[in-house]
Amino acid sequence: MMKKATFLSTLALVTVLSFVSATAWSQVVVSQVYGGGGNSGATLKNDFIEIFNKSSEPVNLAGWSVQYASATGSDWQVTELTDFILQPGQYYLVQQAQGSGGSVDLPTPDATGTIPMASSNGKVALVSSTTALSGACPTGTEIIDLVGFGTASCFEGSGAVPALSNTTAGIRLSQGCIDTNNNLADFEVAAPDPRNTASPVHVCSTTPSVAMPTFDPAPGIFTSPVSVSITTTTEDASIYYTLDGSDPTESSTLYTAPLNISGTTTIKARGYKEGLDPSFIATGVYTFPTTVATIAELKELPFGTTPYTLSGEVILSYQQEFRNQKFIEDETGGIMIDDYYGVITTSYNLYDGITGVQGTLNEFGNMLQFTPLANTAPASSVGNVINPPVISLAEFVSNFEAYESRLVTIQNVHFVDPTGNFANGI
Question: How many C-beta atoms surround the C-beta of residue 256 within 10 A?
Fold first, then answer.
């Protein structure tokens, strides 16, 4: 069993939080967040939050805390930090809840909490007090740093860190040194790499550098080709880029004109100018969903953050207010749409046809679910008829995946105690 569910969506009401402090405190940052510990497919047993001192001065963490809230939540859980002087370039590891899976312990934590962080979406704050924050997007001078990931309703800058997973963490670029107060630009999504106070220090350079390049439009999910411009605010700087995942150098391709992107592509760009350090590397992932025609094909695809488009028509066989769930099926199988954030706003009646559902695959409680990433079009047909297969209870038990989320008729069964009601939400 997994420790917690993974929920993914791209639509959320967002509020932007930004703040600047001239003190060394503001140079201590959240350098890594990971909420997939102990979940299905995870190697590490625990969730964790990592902080880093990117300044040139030591900072005492006494009376500080790291705090966590769900993506749209307003209740913050607190883990107090220890009375420790964090040296320049030093990391500090805060262990959080342990799941039922995983095989590898974290490095020795510097502080320990019990917060069960969500693996995909959430908010983490570094706070100079141990009083719990309040509100979905809190403000105040006590907030040293804040990182929103996935569908978080609060983040620094233009966007949250892209959704994480059971096998990926949000990691601050340049080993923690980059901080432009923009979560989307300052973090990459990669395999977790927890570091503690015993890890090698990484002192950040103080030499002026080229401003990190930015992409327009911003990285994200696209369904049609896109033209991507790359710019830097440093005058007369040259930008070099790669499309193969490697880090760009001055031997890479020189940017001279917008790039036409029509398939899933990772762009990495770096600015250079004589007399300045090279910029930090900007990474932009432009994702184009994989398209399949049937539910059977969809169910064979990997779990995670990869988006899929179900191009064939499916029939709505059941829907309920609980988590906005919809059960859909076609001739090849069935699947449940778990729409916790209400991404699909189009109204449907039972047995309507739906075409072009887009989402990601995950599993909770051994139940396969499709988490939508965008609203769907109005019904492509109405009044469809579903002829449920007639099966025995033994066939249902022995071949559950073949009938999962489908409307079926089970022969020769009765309730021993025909009282009470069915219930949801367990």
Answer: 7
